[in-house]
Amino acid sequence: MASNIIREWTGIQQFPLATQTKLLELLGNLKQENVSTLTILVMGKGGVGKSSTLNSIIGERVVAVSAFQSEGPRPVMVSRSRAGFTLNIVDTPGLVEGGYVNDHALEIIKRFLLNKTIDVMLYVDRLDAYRVDTLDRQVIKAITDSFGKGIWSRGLIVLTHAQLSPPDGINYDEFFSRRSEALLKVVRLGARLKKQEIQEFGIPVVLVENSGRCNTNDSGEKVLPNGTAWIPNLVKTITNVISNGSKAILVDKKLIEGPNPNDKGKLLIPLILAFQYFFVVKPIQRSIRQDVAKESRPLWELRDMGMSNREF
Fold first, then answer.
1. Rounded to an integer, what distance in angstroms lies between the CA atom of residue 125 and that of residue 127?
2. Which positions ≥6 away from 253 have C-beta within 8 Å?
3. Mean pLDDT of the chain
4. Residues near 34 by Cβ (< 8 Å), separated by ≥ 6?
């Protein structure tokens, strides 16, 4: 695979000044924590807005987005550098094909990420998808099986298409809360996370609106129906995840291929040898010694030892 090209992050200049200031401040805080490179993995089902979210963060149309084709067949890494800080975002193909989890896509993603470190994972879905089902749980399980449970301590949920009017007159914040709770429950079950693990790190949920119809505030920033400037809020949440005390995920050969079953057997060898020695060899040795002690000595041996008065 060809080396990734790191270009100057000129797209940041396309943001309103207020957004630029917030982003540079957040990235400056990371540099103060000796974080000069940030790699974000974007995952989810097809057609949920993964590529559009990448374009929105970068401030450029770097990944093609089509209403008729949800994403490319292979992962793409987009890298931008600004003031000594490098931002890498990995866009990935959808994880569902024909109503089933696309295991082949997951294998391609893992091998693309070989020897790379994932600092944050964005699990992208739509706010206007009103239900969760068993397929959602299967997707979460597949991600967990591929990258380990630790990926969720570095994860956050991104809900796109946030510029909507909730159905049945439900309050916007209440609708967002219900949708978030439903997805978080699916993540907890699919990833087999314990309550303690959820409480330790938490999994933030962030709203995103990538379309041109997104409202703006007086500073020209794109805002959600609740008034939140969503691009700085998303980046702030990402920096919070990095600072939560969890470990980044290194995608090495062991993670891709899984644990070697022979390694488990090697760990058992000392235990098996010890068992054989104490419960097989030692009893046999003890039995032999007892048999030898009970065996009658020959007369010639007794005579030589002066232990017999018998004459020959």
1. 7
2. 114
3. 85
4. none
pLDDT digits (tens, 9 = 90+) for 226-283: 899 999 999 999 999 998 888 999 998 887 776 555 555 556 667 677 666 666 667 7
User: Residues 42, 208: contact at Cβ < 8 Å?
Assistant: no
Tell me which of 23-32, 200-209, 250-259, 274-283 is least confident.
Answer: 274-283
pTM of the model: 0.81
Structure-block tokens of residue 55: 């374009």
Can you tell me the distance from the alpha carbon of 218 to that of 224, in angstroms, rounded to the nearest whole number?
A: 13
Please name the residue that has the structure tokens 């079950």. 189
- Total Cβ atoms within 10 A of residue 263: 9
Do residues 231 and 19 lie in contact, with contact meaning Cβ atoms separated by under 8 Å? yes
182, two tokens: 């439903």
Instruction: Give one DSSP letter per residue of 195-247, joined into a string.
Output: HHHHHHH---EEE---STT--B-TTS-BB-TTS-BHHHHHHHHHHHHHTSSPP
Sequence length of the chain is 312
Rg, C-alpha atoms of the chain: 31
Residue partners of 63: CB distance under 8 A and separation at least 6: 51, 54, 55, 72, 76, 78, 91
Local structure of 158: helix, strand or coil: strand
Angle at which helix 172-190 crosses helix 134-147, to 10 degrees, equals 50
Give the model confidence (pLDDT) of 80-134 as tens digits: 999 889 999 999 999 998 889 999 999 999 999 999 999 999 999 999 988 899 9
The C-alpha atoms of residue 29 and residue 22 are separated, in whole angstroms, by: 11
- Cα separation, 271 vs 264, whole angstroms: 12
CA angle 198, 245, 162 (to 5 degrees): 55
SS3 269: helix
b/e code 228-262 from CB counts within 10 Å (16+ = b): bbbbbbbbbbbbebbeeebeebebeeebeeeeeee
Q: Which two tokens stand for residue 80?
A: 């931008």
All residues at 6 or more sequence positions from 252 whose CB lies less than 8 Å from its CB, including other chains = 114, 115
